[in-house]
Task: structure prediction
Amino acid sequence: MREAKESIDWNELRAEERKLKHDVMAHNHVYGRIFLSYALFQLCPSAAGIIHLGATSCYVQDNCDCIIIRDSVQYLLKRMAIVLSRLGDFAERTKSEVTVGRTHYQAASLTTVGKRACIWSQDVLIAFKELERFVKEQRFRGIKGATGTQDSFMTLFEGDEQKVEALDDLVTEKAGFKNRFDISGQTYTRQQDVLLVNCLATFAAAAKKMCMDIRVLQAMGELWEPFEESQIGSSAMPYKKNPMKSERVCSLARQLIALPQIALNTMAEQGLERTLDDSAVRRMMIAEGLLNTNAILLILQNIVEGLTVRSTIIAKNVSEEMPFLALEKALMYLCQEGVDRQKAHATIRLTALEAKEKGDANLEEMLKDSFYDTVRERVIELASCPLLFTGRCTSQTISFPVHDSRFPETTCSRARELCVLTWYSSSQIRMDQFS
Result:
């Protein structure tokens, strides 16, 4: 049987499935015929008559799905670790690159480009850990028979429950799993598929948030995704540099984000011990979900590796907003001087609104009122160094991969490749495939 496992006549198989309308039985029949050939019949004369004995279709399909999902998730984790590594590199390079923070898409307190990248990294990291947890806790279906009772195997082993349990354990171990379901209907519970799809959707949401940010920042001129030398942005407007890679990620992510609803419905509609409602939709949902996740990771890696920070534009935007941001420091200093916080807030608000209406954001002019006499010099002096307005951005960026115990060592500047190399050492996939 082992010698013949690769001997598949696909044309005959397709013809058999068209006739039987059953994929697993078509394989059983075609595979069985191989052993009727003279050479193989001599090696294993009884093979054709015992193929699939005691089993049901889901013994093949569900267990194979478990193996495919496990191997695919382990591959995706490697890809995700690389994206985290590249994000760590980018954050480290830009940890002190001051930029305007945005809330409600409006200018807010200053931050740094690197700190913003840490926000993206943290979201991807959470998705990474959820996917990692899934694969560690994933359970194999094992041998459960037609409705999960293992009755067929009890018959084969003449009522010996210990032998049935031993066979279940042996098949699980042979498939490379530590955990298996003790209880099932004809299929393993589709709640496990819900957990998988939720992990993929969580990552997709993180990827979409990141790429939406990049699209907004590219519109502001502060950040550019990679743009190839011969790339064309628009057929009508030759000057355009559209963020098409980030747009593609957002488009792909939309499909993944919608998958949990399908997975939940599939689980909820799995009637009694099993109905066929889940069969067709799972073949799309799981395969496309995993492939889509890989596609997003490939694009994300390319984006992060080629991100261009437009420091001149960023500095110009910081300079334009600096007088207003300095008023936030004035508020804190005034309160330290004993001024009522609400009174200071109301006065500063009027000062800022008047300056915006005039279109003249000169800090010295804005602070000329005697109300600011006690803090004026300190605020003006501080405003000359925007980095002093970023709080702990730089130190947060440095400490994030070190202090967050959940963070794979990939993104730590002192060992940012360690996680990736560890993944490769346990994989048969050659390293140059991920370069």
